[in-house]
Design brief:
about 290 residues, alpha+beta, Ku70, Chain: A, Domain 2, seven-stranded mixed beta barrel, two-stranded antiparallel sheet, disordered C terminus
Length: about 290
Amino acid sequence: MARALWKGAISFGLVHIPVELISASLDHELDLSMLDRRDFAPIGYKRYNKRTGKEVEWDDIIKGYEYKTDAYVVLSDEDLRQANVKATQTIDILAFVDASEVPLTFYEHPYYLLPAKGGEKVYALLRETLRKANKVGIASVVMRTKQHLCALVCVGDAIVLNTLRYADELRPTDDLDLPASTLKAAGISDKELKMALSLVEGMSETWQPEQYHDSYREDVLALVKKKIKARQTKTITPPAPEPEEERGSNVIDLVALLQQSLGRKAPAPPPRKRATSAAARKAAPAKRKAA
């Protein structure tokens, strides 16, 4: 059983649901260590006292807020909790909104909410209410000294708390060089749109997440095994030369690409007109006159 990262309660109206927070994601990133290329020894990091230069043990580290240069207010975990007990122990639902109204760019990190002892029935009630109403609960919660905006979402039999970015944490699109918002202004024809929709329809299938996997990570680990077997564990592979970019026209025949994607034969390009030489052009009137 995963360890709870946070314990508290969901609160909306007069309803109080005791819950525990469990991370919903598993980290499978490649764990690469940094080495000194001269002797391949691992590079370590030290927590040190900036005044004495000596290393500091974890048990001697506390938190502090710098209120002016080199002057700190010490804040213990209990200080941080007592500053606002309700905020640190409650997931406070502020509103319910349609699930489709929250853009994907706002979603940040998912956590499972589990009912604590005695909270099973009211947890199930909130879950089914979210499901039937097709709503998400917009809430605030304090975790690790930061107040998060979050969305409570019904996913299967679980309520998922997904932390959200605040609006001012997202880059506005106004200053981005994006294509025009209408088909006509973007230069897209009805034919191109219909063919693109046909391609999407042909590639549509039921969502099966287990069929997707991190093939890059698997390839890197296969390379690791290959280098171990070949006894090349300390061989530094030099960078390969950059491939030269092919020079060509920037004009894309979108219809031809779509037809190829749909498995159709693209129409043959129109025959190119032969360029006539200056001598041939001068001889042509003479030939017609002689005829």
